[in-house]
Design brief:
Protein name: Presumed capsid-scaffolding protein
Number of strands: 12
Order of helices and strands: HHHEEEEHEEEHEEHEEEHH
InterPro entries: Capsid_scaffold_GpO
Distance between the termini: 147 Å
Organism: Pseudomonas protegens (strain DSM 19095 / LMG 27888 / CFBP 6595 / CHA0)
Structural class: alpha+beta
Number of helices: 8
Length: 346
C-alpha cells in the first residue's frame, strides 16, 4: 500500500479539473472584457469622428465674408510714368473684366510674393469693375470703380487706418484681344510712394525705374495713388448657405448626419435605400415605356383588323338576298345508264 501511495500523485495534481476550469473561465472572461473594451474604443473613435465631421461641416450659422462697396481707383488722364490713362482703357477694363479670364488681386505696394505667409502676399480679389462719370475741378471725367473681396488682414489694416491709398496696374493690350485689362490693385500708406513725383522720376529714368520689377508685364503702367474710403459689408457665403439649407432639411426629416452611432449608420442605409429606389423607379420607367410601345402597336393592329372587318361587312351587305342560303351552281346531268350490251371493235 505504501508503494502504491508513492506511485499516486498528490490529490491536487490528480484532480486538476476545478483549477483548470477556473483558469479557463478566467481566460474567457478576460477575453470578453478585452473585446468589449475594444468595441467601446471603436465606438468612441467613431463618435469622435462623427462629432469632428459635424463640427467641420456645421453650417447652422453660415460663414461670413466681406465685400467692399464700389470705390474709385482711377480716372482718365491721370499721369503715370509719362503716359496718360486713356478713357477707352477704363471702358475696356470694365467691359472685359472676368474672374474666369484673369482675376486681379489686391497687393501691397504692387509687390507680389510667392509665399503665403509673406507680408507681400495677396490681400483680396477684385470681383467687379464699372465706370462712371465724375466731376473733378469742374470738369467731367470717366472714372473706374472697383469692388473687392478683402482678406481679414486687409479689413483689419483698414480699421487701423493703414494702407488707405490705392493704385491700379493696367495693361493697355491684354493677350490677343487688343483691349486694356486690369492686372491688379495695390494699397499703400502714402501717395508719395506711387505719386506724381515718383512716377515722373520713373518716366525720366526708365533704366533706374524702381517700379519696373513690380510690373506683371513690362508694358503695364501704374496709376497715381489716390485716397479711398473703403467700406466693407458682410455677405453670406453662398456655398455655406446651401449646405446649411440641406442640413436643416435633413434635421426636419430626422435623418441628420449630426446624429451619432446608430443614427449615422441609418443615414447611410437610408441613402443606399434611396439610391436603390431611384434605380428601381428608373427600371420601372423603362419597362413602362416598352409596355406602352407594345400596347400602341397592338392598338394599331386592332384598328387595322377592325377596318378590314368593316370593309368585309359592307361587301356582304351588298350581296343579293338568298345566295348565302342557296348557293348558285350548275347541276350535273343525271346518269341515264346503258343498254346492257358491250360492243368491241376487233
Amino acid at each position: 500500500m505504501a508503494f502504491m501511495a508513492q506511485m499516486l500523485p498528490p490529490a491536487r495534481e490528480h484532480f486538476p479539473r476545478r483549477p483548470l476550469y477556473a483558469a479557463d473561465l478566467q481566460q474567457r472572461l478576460v477575453a470578453r472584457l478585452a473585446r468589449a473594451q475594444q468595441h467601446a474604443l471603436i465606438a468612441k473613435a467613431h463618435s469622435h469622428r462623427t462629432e469632428d465631421s459635424r463640427m467641420a461641416g456645421k453650417t447652422d450659422t453660415p460663414t461670413k465674408k466681406h465685400r467692399s462697396k464700389f470705390f474709385r481707383v482711377a480716372v482718365e488722364g491721370a499721369t503715370t510714368d509719362g503716359r496718360q490713362i486713356e478713357r477707352q482703357w477704363l471702358v475696356d477694363a470694365a467691359e472685359t473684366y472676368s474672374l474666369n479670364t484673369y482675376g486681379a488681386r489686391v497687393w501691397i505696394e504692387h509687390m507680389r510674393s510667392l509665399l503665403p505667409d509673406s507680408p507681400f502676399r495677396a490681400y483680396g480679389d477684385v470681383v467687379a469693375l464699372k465706370t462712371e462719370e465724375v466731376e473733378i475741378a469742374g470738369a467731367k471725367k470717366l472714372a473706374l470703380f472697383a469692388q473687392i473681396e478683402p482678406t481679414a488682414d486687409l479689413v483689419n489694416m483698414n480699421k487701423a487706418r493703414q494702407k488707405l491709398y490705392t493704385s491700379i496696374e493696367i495693361r493697355p493690350k491684354f493677350a490677343d484681344t487688343g483691349r486694356a485689362y486690369l492686372d491688379g490693385i495695390a494699397v499703400t500708406d502714402t501717395p508719395a510712394s506711387l505719386g506724381t513725383e515718383m512716377l515722373t522720376f520713373s518716366a525720366q529714368n526708365p533704366d533706374k525705374n524702381p517700379l519696373a520689377a513690380r510690373k506683371r508685364d513690362s508694358s503695364n503702367l501704374f496709376s497715381e495713388a489716390i485716397e479711398v474710403a473703403l467700406e466693407f459689408e458682410e455677405v453670406e457665403d453662398e456655398g455655406g448657405k446651401v449646405a446649411g439649407l440641406f442640413s436643416r432639411v435633413l434635421d426636419l426629416l430626422g435623418k441628420s448626419k449630426d446624429k451619432e452611432g446608430k443614427d449615422a449608420i441609418l443615414f447611410t442605409e437610408l441613402g443606399e435605400a434611396v439610391e436603390a429606389m431611384a434605380e428601381h423607379v428608373a427600371g420601372q420607367g423603362q419597362a413602362f415605356a416598352a409596355e406602352k410601345a407594345a400596347r400602341e402597336s397592338l392598338l394599331a393592329k386592332h384598328e387595322k383588323l377592325a377596318a378590314d372587318f368593316s370593309t368585309l361587312m359592307e361587301k356582304l351587305e351588298k350581296t343579293p338576298a338568298g345566295t348565302s342560303q342557296q348557293p348558285q351552281f350548275t347541276a350535273r346531268p343525271a346518269a341515264t345508264g346503258g343498254d346492257g350490251a358491250l360492243v368491241t371493235d376487233c
